Amino acid sequence: MTIYTLSDFVQLVRREFCFLFSKYGYEVVSSKSVRSDEHMFLVIKSQEFSIRIQYDLGHIEISLGTFDAPAEWMKGIGNDPGWLPIEAVFEVLTDEQAMTGVESVEQSEIYETYEDRMAHISEKLERMYDEIREIALTDKLSF
Predict the structure, then answer these.
(1) Which of 140, 50, 142 has the alpha carbon at shortest distance from 95?
(2) Could you count the other beta carbons within 10 Å of the beta carbon of residue 35?
(3) CA–CA separation, 113 vs 105, rounded Å?
(4) How many CB atoms lie within 10 A of CB 30?
């Protein structure tokens, strides 16, 4: 799916992350676009977490946030209180799994398209969501 408008972006997120909406009750709470839809972001929330998906000239960044994390543009690694890049969350889980002998997830991925990246992250997130919830609730994940 080629993203042309903010509406297309919202539709893509709803399709790729459909399990979040159907199983965990996520809702779209904020979406914005600038520069003729070259830059867009969408924040979805459940009762536990926020997820921000940002599209920037064909590149997708996905972050996990606290419930009350600000629904705003990514400011840069380390400058985004309340948000963690999803890859950092996966890395925490990988480290936890390595210590317990559980098979780890892939460390680095190369994607041909942003749709491929979203689909792969969605699959990982769906598989690991309960573990993410557990480590967040036991304070092993610092936002």
Answers:
(1) 140
(2) 8
(3) 20
(4) 14
